[in-house]
Design brief:
Layout: E1 3-8, H1 11-25, E2 29-34, H2 37-41, E3 50-52, H3 58-66, E4 75-79, H4 85-96, E5 101-104, H5 111-114, E6 125-128, H6 131-140, E7 149-151, H7 167-177, E8 186-190, H8 196-207, E9 214-219, H9 224-227, H10 232-240, E10 245-249, H11 264-270, E11 273-276, H12 281-287, E12 291-295, H13 298-304, H14 311-315, E13 319-321, H15 324-336, H16 342-348, H17 355-368
Protein name: UDP-N-acetylglucosamine 2-epimerase domain-containing protein
Amino acid sequence: MARIWAITKDPGGHAAVWPVSEMLTYKHSVLNISEGAAVEIMNKPPNHLRLYLGAWDPQDVLNLVDTGQLNLPDVFVTSACSGGGVGMYLIPKMKARGVPTVVVTDFWAGAQVKDFNPSKFWPSAICVQDELAKKFLMRAWRGYPENNVHITGQPAFDEYASLKFDKQRILKQVKRQIPDFKDIPTVFFAGQLQGSTEALSSLIRALNVVPNPINLVLSKHPRFHTHSPEENDPWDKACREFHNGYLVYTELISLKSASEKISSDEWVCISDVVVSMHSTLLATAGYFRKECVSILFPDVEKRDLGKWGLPYEHLDTAVVCRTHNQVAEALRDALRGGLGLMANQKKHFALPGDSTERVVRIVEKLIEGGPLICENYL
């Protein structure tokens, strides 16, 4: 039985690493080290040790090792989260102590091509979801061995192949919690950390002029209130301007217990149209074959995506809108006859359901000490 550390921080990164951590637990001793939003997400007590780190410095973790309170892992696994965090900053520390390191990514050109560069943060192996993600990575990490890049698919999406995502079951749950929820088209808006209010305002302007009423479901990013407090009032103002249907605030739904909460993934499953700026929920919507619209105004695109651009535009799995007129046109088409995205969604968002197992195999090869051979698992 090997010792493994699994590090997570942001919601997306946690979603990518947590299934791997759970599967590894069946055969190994896994220590989950969490910080940031991941601490709140991990609310189900697993049957193995967890260590929560809030604002700890990576050196604090090593101090626990040096004082005998923790054993070094045989393999170190981390998500690729914005700002790096404990996971990224421990990579060079692990390398210096001879511990193999694995990064599991959750977005095509995410933190791995921004924060995890320079080379001191490069791991022994990195798991990416497809050829496009690998292409972005190799452009960013000049000199990184291609054999260390493994196309595994995305562990976070394995569960979409399960019976958990039954549309009729979820709809019944929604109507139990929201008796006034209508049998009309549903548009789900996934907010992000910064700039969501302008996108939401543009969406509402477009929906107010479509011929038929709709359910508009709004989901804020978990850190929206603390990261972008200046957007709270404009967000509320934009919501008050909606007058063509039924408005649902997911954060205000009254629940008897946390287990009743309808996840963002489940909202996507029952929606007809999914709208965001560049959220990974647009990938979720692609897996569920939904009409996908990205509202990506130029300043947001430059700030958040830079030279990499929007992956969904590269893959042609979402319609990208950079002006208010384009938003209005896309929403009209999405609700009327569709955006013609399904063929590419089927091509790029297949559901083999075993991406987690592929990542676990790579971790176990490192435990065994054998050479890693670059494999394209998809």
